[in-house]
Design goal:
single chain, Alpha-Beta Plaits, 2 domains
Amino acid sequence: MKLEITEAQRHRIAPWVLGLLIAIFAGATFWGYQALFRPPDAPPPPPPCIVQTVSSELSTSQVTVNVLNGGTKSGQAKVVADALAAQGFVIGYIDNAQPVSWVTVVGSTKESPEVLLVASFFPEAVLRADDRESHSVDVIINNLWEALPEGVPTTISVDTGTVCLPSIAKKNP
């Protein structure tokens, strides 16, 4: 038995098939537009800090620094990150920031040993605290930054023997 469709049936079915194809195309176009122009996913939150035992000193290899370019010179944050990495710091990420007038060092508290160690490489920096749990340190640079000073110690004394540091800093002992 062969199924045959008459010309009249074909004329009744054709608009429905065309409508279905147009609906599928419109849905795919809408989905593609949404996927293309939606904002990127937010980065994952930084890992919480882990209390680590240090002898009596905290070294640069135990501190995670995020470098942000708050100036207009392209690539400036990468230059600073490379200079800090050469001093032993663990670089968390490099990004852009809102413009700043002064080099700014941001950490959990202004007195945190990791903040003071990073700030020692930026003598004229403004220190800011934001109560972050990760204990990483942000350095926001501007167009006036030229180079790290020479001869800055890569360790700082710690009175307590324990320091709360980001877990990613453990990758680089």
